[in-house]
Amino acid sequence: MITTNYKPVKTLLFTALISLQSYAQTKIGTTEITKWQYGKTGAVSITYDDGSMNQFRKALPVMDKVKVPATFFIITGSIPGSKYHGRFIGRPVKDIIKESATIPTKDQNFFERCSATGYLGYMGTIAAHTQAGSLYDAGKKEKAFKTLDDIYAKARNGELKPGYEPNDEFKQSVGSTWDDFRKDAARGYEFASHSITHPSMPGLDEPNLLWELEKSKADILAQLGPKHTFSAECPYGFENDRVMSYALKIYPALRNRMPEPWLKEIDRASKQSPGSTDKDYIQWQRGATTKTPLPMMKLWVDTTLTHTNTWLVLVFHGIDGMGYEALPSTLLDEYFQYIKSKEDKLWIATFGDVTRYMREREHGKAVATAAGNSVQVKVSHDLDSKMYYLPVTLKTYVDSGWTSVKVLQGKKSVKAKVAKDNNGTYVVYQAQPNGGVVTLTKA
């Protein structure tokens, strides 16, 4: 028996009418700022902490070959030519050492004492500073107090060798020059602050915290210019409320935390994956370690592509045996090639540029007017143009009879191809906010 499936003619006509109504519902000139640059599905930023030498000897050539940008959070105090270096701002340390013999460490003196620990004039004290700051941030105050009491007792009793020994992150960053960074910055890499000495900031008092934050920025400004003073990462990834309250006033973009009402943050330690949210964007940080299999790293990229609101922020440290959780550069080569292969849908950009774009979109508006044979669009935002200068991507619906479009803003003119979706014929193009009216005409 043969069964024939059919729809009555009236049903077919009604379905076609509904389809035409849906197709024609978007008015000519309707314009939006796309969620990601170039109208892509998601974004990915490659970031490195500490500025260890192998990041530049081994990893950077891999990125050069694949042609992907990255952000390097660098320790500025180790670079020859830097004006500012590690120091303790406060009372003479000999007075603090003497006082520790009779007054134990407690909340009232913890920050001063922890700040001074690395500058007591003895080897090995930086490790105690780092440990105490971490314990205090974790709420283990008594253990933090004991750590400082123990190291100060050793200093008083002559149990430590005289001298100064920086932490491993600082030592492994020695070797780069500002000239090197200027050359790399000219090729599109972002260099951002990771402090002067890589201290444990939750253990610093206000003067020493500001020294590490502000003076690192001052050296970067003097050597690389204002573009590279936009982003920062406080060492060890701490999200300490007190530290963030200072750092967010100095750097517009912190990888540690960016408390925007439109941004959901998932940090490296979280096992959460991107999902449904009432926020416009998700910043999803993932940190590969020596135990992270490459298929898992690739899955992060694939997961980003299954959403339209996700910014994958990759965090790397050591490379080829140097630095924390050092990964082989051969693995990065394969991984970056995989990311590059998804570039048709992924916007690969520096940490600073993705932050700029999201804020420009959130603070921006596009007003369009269709008149005669042209569409005029005015795109603007209320942000500081010295920091927020990226072009944004606009999607504008045009007459269905247009096959290609001339886009003119100021003296810059380009020809763009049209495309179609369920709402009509549109064109996607770049425009400079606050840069004058954009005029679209049939090409």
From TrEMBL:
<dbReference type="GO" id="GO:0005576">
    <property type="term" value="C:extracellular region"/>
</dbReference>
<dbReference type="GO" id="GO:0016810">
    <property type="term" value="F:hydrolase activity, acting on carbon-nitrogen (but not peptide) bonds"/>
</dbReference>
<keyword id="KW-0732">Signal</keyword>
<dbReference type="InterPro" id="IPR051398">
    <property type="entry name" value="Polysacch_Deacetylase"/>
</dbReference>
<feature type="signal peptide">
    <location>
        <begin position="1"/>
        <end position="24"/>
    </location>
</feature>
<dbReference type="InterPro" id="IPR011330">
    <property type="entry name" value="Glyco_hydro/deAcase_b/a-brl"/>
</dbReference>
<feature type="domain" description="NodB homology">
    <location>
        <begin position="172"/>
        <end position="247"/>
    </location>
</feature>
<dbReference type="Pfam" id="PF01522">
    <property type="entry name" value="Polysacc_deac_1"/>
</dbReference>
<dbReference type="GO" id="GO:0005975">
    <property type="term" value="P:carbohydrate metabolic process"/>
</dbReference>
<protein>
    <submittedName>
        <fullName>Polysaccharide deacetylase family protein</fullName>
    </submittedName>
</protein>
<feature type="domain" description="NodB homology">
    <location>
        <begin position="41"/>
        <end position="79"/>
    </location>
</feature>
<dbReference type="InterPro" id="IPR002509">
    <property type="entry name" value="NODB_dom"/>
</dbReference>
